[in-house]
Amino acid sequence: MRTRWLRWLLVPLLVVPVGWLLFTGLGHDPRLIPSPLVGKPMPAFAGTTLAGGQFSSAELAGKPAIVNFWASYCIPSCVDEHPVLLDLAARHVGELQMVGVLVNDTTDGARAFLARYGQVSWPNLLNADGGVSIDYGVTGPPETFFVNSQGIVVARHVGPLTAAVVAEELAALGIEP
User: Fold this and answer.
1) Sign of CA dihedral 174, 83, 136, 125
2) Superfamily the domain 32-172 falls into
3) How do the domains of the chain map onto residue ranges?
4) Looking at residue 177, what is its pLDDT?
5) Beta bridge partners of 70
6) Measured in Å, how far apart are the chain's first and last C-alpha atoms?
7) Residue 158: helix, strand or coil by DSSP?
8) What's the pTM value of the predicted model, to 2 decimals?
C-alpha cells in the first residue's frame, strides 16, 4: 500500500517538471536566440572550395563580408534566398565580400544546386568535417553572418535572407542597400 501511494506521488513530481521543460523549450524560435559571436571577431577558417581552390577567412579582411551557410538539401529556404544573394553580389561588387559554407553537403549536390538555381561569383567552402559550422554555432542552413571591415560579427540571421533583411543588415555595415 505504501509503495502504491509513493508511486502516485513520484510520477506527477517527475512528469510535470519534465513536461514543463519540454513545453517551454520547444516553444522558442531558434531565430530569436542571439548568437554569442555578435560583437566578437569572426572565427577564422580555411579550406578547399567547391571550385577546387583554397580559401581562408583572412582573405575577407578589410571589407565588410557575408558568410552564408547553405546546403543543396535546404529546400525551399536556400532556394528562396539564392536570388537575393545573387542580386546582392551583383549590386555590391568591390564593396562587399561573400563566402558560402556548405553544411553537411556533398560536392555533387552543391554543384547540382548551383547549376539549377544559378552559379555564384563567390567562393564556397566545402567544410567536409563540419568544423566551420560548429565554430559559428550554426543550427542548420540557411544561416548568415554579417561581418564588418574590422572582422567583427555584427549580425546573424537564421533562415532565408530576404531583400528587407539584407537592407537592414547592410545598413548596419554602413553600406547603402
Assistant:
1) negative
2) Glutaredoxin (3.40.30.10)
3) 32-172
4) 75
5) 102
6) 73
7) strand
8) 0.82
